[in-house]
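User: Some background: our group keeps a shared notebook of sequences we're curious about, and every so often someone picks one and asks for a predicted structure to add to the entry. Today it's my turn. The entry only has the sequence so far, pasted here. Could you supply the structure so I can complete it?
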Amino acid sequence: MHIIQTRKDLRALVGQWRNAGETIGVVPTMGALHDGHLALVKALDGKVTRRIVTIFVNPIQFNNAEDFQLYPRGVDADAALLAATGAVDVLYTPSEQEMYPPGFATRVMVSGLDSMLCGGDRPGHFDGVATVVSKLLNQTGAHVAAFGEKDYQQLCIIRRLVSDLDMPVDILPVPTVREADGLALSSRNRRFTPAQRQQAALLPAALSACLAAMQAGQPCDSALADCTATLQAGGFTVHYLELRAQQTLQPLSQIEPGARLFVAATLGGVRLIDNMPVPTPA
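Assistant: Of course. Here's the predicted structure to add to the notebook entry:
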């Protein structure tokens, strides 16, 4: 596995691959890798001949300077984890200076999708995401890019971005990977104390119960209110809990096929997001 830090070196290698008729897949990450990231790498099996994983903690998508500083980092451990898979050809780890050189003045904005859910209390966050993803897709020359469904709003924004800007890359969605107690894998989980980590399992359990209540006929407003109260009683600060259409992210007042439940909540200073689709009837 090559470890590359500059655009110049990456472009040289990618150019060789493309000239040889190879196909390229990319998994953009901010590091602190876990099994969820490895699932993204695995999802590229049979779809590409070369795989690139990128690690870059993107400063322009953070609204909170402390959150940026606290974001877990460990490139050496991440590199060892990726090398052990035997499936990754390149780990690309550009510096902040490499990604945003002096005079950098461009932002990419996906209007509409960026102002709801996480965009509501994190203004500018998705501009930062769209900008860095645009750069990484260009730099890697990827034919396929894998993104997890845990960050479902991000996935929708990237799909729209790629479609609107005619980027020649396929976006591959990968289902959320969860721990045994249902908590979605996240680099932020490392910041919990053992007691908080146990508390955090309430989040997916409450979402599942909320969806089950809706399917059993409880009005959506009532089920959402009950779920919010459950999370608050469990120590969470709930930023939003909403039922939305998974294709358009538009709000829904009742459960229907293609609906998805979205939540953002903070526990012990750690902000978690999650989402679950309405289960398909057996």
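Suggested note for the entry: Residues 80 and 263 are 33 Å apart (CA to CA). The domain at 187-275 is CATH 3.30.1300.10 (Pantoate--beta-alanine Ligase; Chain: A,domain 2).
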